[in-house]
Design goal:
The chain folds into two domains: 135 residues, 3-Layer(aba) Sandwich (Rossmann fold), CATH 3.40.50.720; 178 residues, Rossmann fold (3-Layer(aba) Sandwich), CATH 3.40.50.720. The protein is built from twelve helices and 13 strands. The protein has a seven-stranded parallel sheet with strand order 8-7-6-9-10-11-12, sandwiched between helices. Strands 2-1-3-4-5-13 form a six-stranded mixed sheet. Helix 5 packs across helix 7 and helix 10 packs parallel to helix 11.
């Protein structure tokens, strides 16, 4: 392969051949990170990442933080394409200041995250973790859980994923409450309420909001104490929406009945890893490792959309709808 081709660094896991082939057909050289299939790009040492980024004009990034320092050190880097929908780890202000393009893979993992959300709701309510553990140690007594059917489910946030969760919930004959900055009067089958009402009335509280200064710790100690005693909390959005320390205390004190967690504050702050592990070890918590959006199908969609974003941005063409976060070239 010609070394003169513009280089695209890919540090995501499982970037498939179809997406790589598409980029190569656009005259680009795909440079993989060399990470094992079960590793994420947060594991790449800073010095190694800087070496990988030397000469790259685009970067398909997973969970790695994209900082102002990284962008400033690589002025030739024009496009940062997140294979995912969250971009809280990308310094978009720096990208705008430095003339870079930032994109996301809008819609790629929506169905997968919505499916995973329902899986966590059911697993926590039906106490599947406790039942599985009991049988594994030879205890076949019945572990009694609770139904989802007929309950009140509160959705904090009502973007693409929140809407898909609501649609899936329609088959469970539940009452769906929604708290959103932008209520949609045309949304069918849901009732928009203030956050405090949602917290007080819901049997299941499910988080589908971006992490911003305004939403950080939206579920804190006070919110947990305001919930029903038998309520459960599900978070497939971003660590930091829940105060993990307050959640652990609420579970230990029996304030709420359980939690389904795909994300933890420890993802952004390794010092909180013991707290995340204490939560995950509990019988009333079902935990996954930020895996909600990582179905085979979702990863393939994310790869394809990210590749399209890179190719379009480098060619000066519009990126796929909903994918553009910032275009620093437009000043």
């Amino acid at each position: 392969m010609s070394a003169s081709r513009p280089r695209v660094l890919v540090t995501t896991r499982l970037f498939d051949d179809a997406a790589a082939r598409f980029l190569e057909e656009q005259g680009l050289e795909v440079v993989p990170s060399g990470l094992p299939g079960d590793a994420v790009d947060t594991h790449i040492p800073d010095a190694d990442l800087n070496a990988m980024l030397d000469g790259a004009v685009a970067w398909v990034v997973g969970l790695r933080a994209v900082t102002r320092d990284v962008l400033a050190a690589h002025p030739q880097l024009k496009v940062i394409a997140r294979r995912g929908v969250g971009y809280d780890r990308v310094d978009v202000a720096a990208a705008r200041d430095l003339g870079r393009v930032v994109t996301i893979a809008a819609g790629a993992n929506d169905p997968a995250v919505a499916d995973h959300t329902l899986a966590l709701m059911l697993a926590v309510l039906r106490r599947l973790k406790a039942s599985d553990a009991a049988i594994a140690r030879g205890d076949w007594r019945v572990v009694s859980g609770a139904d989802l059917t007929g309950k009140t489910v509160g959705l904090i946030g009502f973007g693409r994923i929140g809407r898909q969760v609501a649609r899936r919930l329609s088959g469970f004959d539940v009452r769906v409450l929604v708290s959103s900055r932008t209520p949609d009067p045309d949304a069918a089958g849901v009732t928009f309420v203030p956050l405090a009402d949602l917290i007080a009335q819901s049997d299941v509280v499910s988080l589908h909001a971006p992490l911003t200064p305004q939403t950080r710790h939206v579920v804190d100690a006070a919110a947990l104490k305001a919930m029903k005693a038998g309520a459960v909390v599900v978070n497939t959005s971003r660590g930091g929406l829940i105060d993990d320390a307050a959640l652990l205390a609420a579970l230990e004190e029996g304030v709420i009945a359980g939690a389904g967690l795909d994300v933890f504050e420890a993802e952004a702050d390794p010092a909180l890893r013991p707290l995340a592990e204490a939560l995950a070890a509990r019988a009333d918590v079902v935990a996954t490792s930020h895996a909600a959006g990582s179905s085979r199908e979702a990863l393939a969609r994310g790869n394809w959309i990210s590749a399209q974003c890179v190719a379009a941005a480098l060619a000066g063409e519009p990126v796929p709808p909903g994918c553009l976060i910032v275009d620093g070239r437009l000043k």
